[in-house]
Amino acid sequence: MAEYDKKKTIVIGHKNPDTDSICSAICYANLKNKATGLEFQPGRAGQVNEETQFVLDYFGVEAPKLIEHVKTQVRDIEIRETKGVKKNISLKKAWNIMQAANAVTLPAVTEDGVLEGLITVGDITKSYMNVYDSSILSKANTQYANIIETVEGDLVVGDANAYFSEGKVLIAAANPDLMEYYINKNDLVILGNRYESQLCAIEMEAACIIVCEGAGVSMTIKKLAQERNCTVIATAYDTYTVARLVNQSMPISYFMKTENLVTFEDSDIIDEIKDVMASKRFRDFPILDKNGKYKGMISRRNLLGAQGKMLILVDHNEKTQAVDGVENARIMEIIDHHRLGTIETISPVFFRNQPLGCTATIVYQMYQEAGIAVDKTIAGLLCSAIISDTLLFRSPTCTAVDKKTAMELAGIAGIQLEEYAREMFTAGSNLKSKTDEEIFYQDFKRFTAGKVSFGVGQLSSLNEQELDTLKDRLLVYITEAHKHQRGVDMMFFMLTNILDESTMLICEGNGAKKMILGAFHIEDDGQDGRSSVVKLPGVVSRKKQLIPAIGMALQA
């Protein structure tokens, strides 16, 4: 059995999903969740048709999430969850955080997670090496709390939340008489334990004094500092060390990059962002969620080991029918009842393919093999899928196993097969509000046989009059559809009458009608033109009757 990691695995059916595709995805995901304890999420590769919606509503089940593609996205790779910081933290604190996290880029974010800017190791080292004038600390609007933290000091007088926003930084090395000539109002003065120097700085209206070498601050100095609104900080460091450290207290907001930031969303596709990353000189790139909130960082190195989404395919095994981007995904399992197709996998997978009328029959067998009981809802979904795929046992694809399984499931679900099937099929043929395009593609699949590609849609109904009306509409539409289906040589649409077990087949494409007539040994009815209808008595199954016949005819 495939080995899963802790990431979510998507269980998904084919494009233009039918009832079997949707119900088998829901039920198999439920089985895997119970059997493994890991996370398996049912998905759908297209819109839910009327019949399937009736089934989901009947049993109170939500439709699986629409999966538009399974291409590898940023959210599928390992994002380094480097924690965001406030933009007013000091350069020194930012440096310490980077060293501890082994990071070269630090994001600044708001309280509610909005990215404000980025600071890199290079930005910090430049701030140390560049020569700034003595007023750089105030120009950066440095908070006293940063200064206290950086010099590992104690606040003696003042407010740590206030800011040093004017003046220059200087060291009081001269005697008090000379200090009067170079200390200006609002300056920050670094000095020692000399009472006279401290007094002079305060009298000259310094905004802050930093008293070094663990020197005490007298009550007189404290009182005077309070009266003159002068902040006093005491530290054990000497004046040289404080002078060297003080610039490290500046906020990162003064140096960080805030404009033209290169960011990616977690929904971005890996193949689409590689070129952008290669064209930039940045080491790291911020990742945002759909609301623009910061999530983490990635680098080019993160992309090297990128692994695709984990998938389990149900009710199909052909690439042309699979969800877009399947070639990028990690296919873990395939549960199907169709012919073997063209899906290629990177490594061996668990592949269960049985000649039964419905994938749901296989899924029920797997519940039994795992010893997991099905509840009323799961039984109802599985039974509905079998009814749909076998046309209530009228299809030649139906086996004795399918019929026995459906009857057993109907008992668990508490439904009467004939009555419930009639309601379900009636709901499925309620097409009054649908456009020709919606009707045509609601159950449409693409196939290949040799070098020929063809598409087949199907609609089953109990109402013969409705099928006749649809025939006239779709005869016109199929020509237009063929023009827009690139790479498809022929197109067919099956209008299947469930009651008399026959199909009106609309043919489109050069040689399409002629091939069908030959394949089923029917004489030409004399219709002219490329697009026409062939009556196929006894033909109700696309999988077991029409596709094999087309395949053999094309090979011949």
Q: What does it look like?
A:
This protein has a six-stranded parallel sheet. A five-stranded mixed sheet has the order 7-12-11-10-9, with helices on both faces. It has four domains: 9-72 and 308-428, inorganic pyrophosphatase (n-terminal core), CATH 3.90.1640; 74-89 and 100-125 and 255-304, CBS-domain (Roll), CATH 3.10.580.10; 141-249, HprK N-terminal domain-like (Udp-n-acetylmuramoylalanyl-d-glutamate--2,6- Diaminopimelate Ligase, Chain: A, domain 1), CATH 3.40.1390.20; 436-555, Diaminopimelate Epimerase, Chain A, domain 1, CATH 3.10.310.20. It is built from 20 helices and 23 strands. Helices cover 37% and strands 20% of the residues. The protein is elongated, with a radius of gyration of 37 Å. The protein has 556 residues and is α/β, with parallel strands linked by helices.
Helix content: 25-40%
Number of domains: 4
What's the CATH H-level superfamily name of the largest domain? Answer: inorganic pyrophosphatase (n-terminal core)
CATH class of the largest domain: Alpha Beta
Per the CATH scheme, the topology name of the largest domain is inorganic pyrophosphatase (n-terminal core)
Unreliable sequence segments: none
| Helix and strand composition category | alpha/beta
Any idea what the radius of gyration is?
A: 37 Å
* Percent range for β-strand residues: 15-25%
Number of strands: 23
Shape: elongated
Helical element count? 20
